[in-house]
Amino acid sequence: MNERRRSRRRDQREEHIEIDRHLIEPSEGAVVLLNVGRAILARTLFIVHSIATIWQTVQMEERNSVWGFALIAIAIIFEGAHTVVMRAGDERRWFCPSVLLYVIATAPPIWLLERKLCEWRVANKTALDEEEFKLQILEQMLLVVLIVGRWLLPKGDISREQLSQILLAYLAISSDIVEFFDVFKEKVVWSNPFVQHIILAAWTLSLLQFPFVLTVSRARKMRVAITKNFEELIVGNRRPNPCNVLYDVDMWAIILANSLQDFPFLSVRLFLMFDRGLVTYTMIFFTCKNALIIALQTYRAFVLFNDRYLHPRLATIEAPVKRARRVTKHRAKIESHDEYQPICRSK
């Protein structure tokens, strides 16, 4: 009787546990619906801001041809429909087409707005502060929408930790872009169309890194037993082909970050300082910052190339060997302590 009661109680507990699991863990259909809703909401945010920027440009330029960029914004709808139908709302791992379409549809109208604003500054037009305030809101909202939109988009194969790293990287990128665009307030810039085009070109290049999701670093999990000796570690680890560096995501992330933002920003700032005489405290600080980032990223690229493709054995062996030494030292201390205790007790 007691055994039957115990078995019944176990069955009841297992049933309760299964019910709790079904209540806590969402079903597959609910996850798909959530991903579809997030995908639609993010793309709606992209389209609304893009259309608002185009509309403001049409009002200032008084040219209806600017509405042609709205076709690119509407293309986000078709891209979203393809993503919802074919991928159930999940985004691709390394690239976001919706973000690229949003940048292409929104960046050129901001070009036109900024150039028009510079023309008004040259002409000393009145009521300039209000228009400048509207333009700054549209420019900064572009970066905010990029960050919030990437947060809303379904993460797909990306983990939550990797998504948080991507968003933090986007915040750091955006702060530098906002400061870089503030040089339009200087007379050296708004009075010279050539300098305006250089700054706008560098600004557009920096926006092209948002569609790429190369900040996700591949996780290399090395599980090596401490009981293995040095020769076994060397035999088990073969030298990879250096040509595989072309497929390394971390290397491409460094190349894109340097070529799309740090190198152009550093070049433009050096040009403004030495050729145009625009020397300010913020200009000096951010110039040094770009130079340091380029140096650190280049150093990191050399370290990754050395550890992964030139001398991978040393990189993979050093950590396990150090751990083994620590464990042996710890065991030796414990054994010496255990041997010392009986001597004390005998005394």
TrEMBL record:
InterPro entries: Transmembrane_26. The chain crosses the membrane at residues 40-58, 64-82, 94-113, 194-214, 278-299. It comes from the Eukaryota. It holds the Pfam family Tmem26. Keywords: Membrane, Transmembrane, Transmembrane helix. This is Transmembrane protein 26. It comes from Ascaris lumbricoides (Giant roundworm). The lineage of its organism: Eukaryota, Metazoa, Ecdysozoa, Nematoda, Chromadorea.
